[in-house]
Automatic annotation (TrEMBL):
Active site residues according to the UniProt entry: S190 (nucleophile), D366 (charge relay system), H398 (charge relay system)
SUPFAM superfamilies (alphabetical): alpha/beta-Hydrolases (SSF53474)
Signal peptide (residue range): 1-21
Name of the molecule in the record: Lipase
Highest taxon, organism lineage: Eukaryota
GO biological processes: lipid catabolic process
InterPro entries in UniProt: AB_hydrolase_fold, AB_hydrolase_lipase, Lipase_euk
Family: Belongs to the AB hydrolase superfamily. Lipase family.
One Pfam short name: Abhydro_lipase
Domain Partial AB-hydrolase lipase: 53-110
Length: 425
């Protein structure tokens, strides 16, 4: 039997089909991937506490930190890789902005080694690389006057992906455009696509500053998602649960006590033995999905050290509303909608105002951005979808777009060719 199938069967719990006699489940998994895990935890202390700039520098790449203030006073931090040893400094490099998914940050683009990391591949290919950090992440906690380190400060945490699109997107795009005098390529993963779709519909003038958008794990319409964590939490987060319930879930920040304990548990309990036993793999899989055949176990400890990052409860509530109702619209305030919008229901995001050449990639096994929803979003975006590509790998899932060990083969090389040849912009 193929080793990847063996690992997958072990993960989902069909132990009996593989294990007999005195051989335990943990023994079986240890025999298969023990050496990889042991190597991972040998190197784990060397990078577990490193942040985005240190992770870039330790690989020999230059990094710049740029702060930008949004129109509603949030301070965002971006990291720039302006050149590399393979591509020396030069005028006129085309900027590429990479924006992460939910519960992640700019560090998600650095989990792979340079030869298969999209950020480093872009830098080595002559592009000016920018790594964004959405408001509320550990890297973008600044505000001109609100305290941002209090998880119960409802005023600071009063945002969802709507504000990320309305304020964060124009602030970052305009900053890069002003500094470089170049139109940008935008690459979004998961929530990074959601805020782009909403942001362009709210700021259609931004389209003139964007060459093309690359959408990984496209998240516009999401009502068919099968992710267990999101499906289980959605009923508690939709507007029918009331704002009081939302506040009880951890004030303004999404489950801060749980997240703090969750991070602690990963670093404390994801020992070599428990990882061999599949415990941490399974937890990671429930939250984000995991493709055993595309996961490099040597990189998993570093990934777990930086996941999950922080965001607002309102962001999750907004996602839950769209997932439950099959909509792509602004935040539903229930009885307060009329005061907020002048209508009983929140307005839909207007797809007709979206005019950016868009390249979409999707995976058959993505339990957050499932194919039927991706195709519905693509249909809403037409005629702006210039390429719609199914990743030619049957178990490609949500996180494979950033941690898949063959991501370079299945999509990054194609993305680079499109950018190099100015195919769509």
């Amino acid at each position: 039997m193929d080793i990847c199938k063996v690992l997958s069967l072990l993960l989902v719990g069909t132990w009996a089909s593989l294990v007999s006699g005195d051989l335990t489940e943990c023994d079986a998994l240890t025999m298969i991937c023990g050496n990889l895990v042991q190597e991972a935890f040998t190197t784990y202390p060397n990078y577990a506490d490193l942040k985005t700039p240190q992770l870039i520098q330790r690989l020999g790449y230059p990094v710049e930190e740029h702060n930008v203030t949004t129109a509603d006073h949030y301070i965002l931090t971006m990291y720039r890789i302006p050149y590399s040893n393979s591509s020396p400094p030069a005028l006129g490099k085309i900027p590429v902005l990479l924006v992460h998914g939910v519960l992640a940050s700019s560090v998600q683009w650095l989990w792979q080694p340079p030869d298969r990391s999209l950020a480093f591949m872009l830098a080595d290919s002559g592009f000016d690389v920018w790594l964004g950090n959405s408001r509320g992440t550990s890297y973008s906690r600044g505000h001109t006057f609100l305290p941002s380190n209090d998880p119960n400060n409802l005023t600071y945490w009063d945002f969802s992906f709507h504000e990320m699109g309305l304020y964060d997107l124009p602030a970052t795009v305009n900053y890069i455009n002003s500094l470089t005098s170049q139109r940008i390529y935008y690459v979004g993963h998961s929530l990074g696509t959601t805020q782009f779709f909403s942001g362009i519909s709210l700021n259609p003038g931004l389209a003139s500053k964007i060459r093309a958008m690359f959408s990984l794990a496209t998240s516009g319409y999401i009502n068919h998602m099968t992710n267990a964590f999101f499906r289980a939490s959605a009923p508690f987060l939709v507007i029918s649960a009331t704002e009081q319930t939302i506040n009880q879930l951890g004030g303004g920040q999404f489950l801060p006590q749980v997240m703090q304990q969750y991070i602690g548990d990963f670093t404390t309990y994801c020992t070599q033995y428990t990882l061999n036993c599949g415990v941490c793999n399974t937890v990671f899989g429930v939250l984000f999905g995991i493709d055993m055949c595309q996961t490099d176990f040597r990189e998993l400890p570093g990934i777990l050290a930086h996941l999950p990052d922080t965001t607002s409860t309102k962001t999750f509530a907004h996602i839950a509303q769209d997932a439950t109702l099959g909509t792509f619209r602004q935040y539903d305030y229930g009885l307060n909608n009329f005061a907020e919008y002048g209508s009983l229901l929140p307005p839909n995001y207007d797809w007709s105002k979206y005019h950016v050449p868009t390249v979409i990639y999707y995976g058959d096994n993505d339990n957050l951005a499932v194919p039927i929803d991706v195709l519905a979003t693509a249909n809403a975006l037409r005629p702006n979808v210039v390429q719609l590509s199914r990743v030619n790998y049957s178990t490609w899932d949500h996180m494979d777009f950033v941690i898949g060990k063959d991501a370079d083969v299945y999509l990054y090389n194609d993305m680079l060719n499109i950018m190099r040849n100015h195919t769509y912009g």
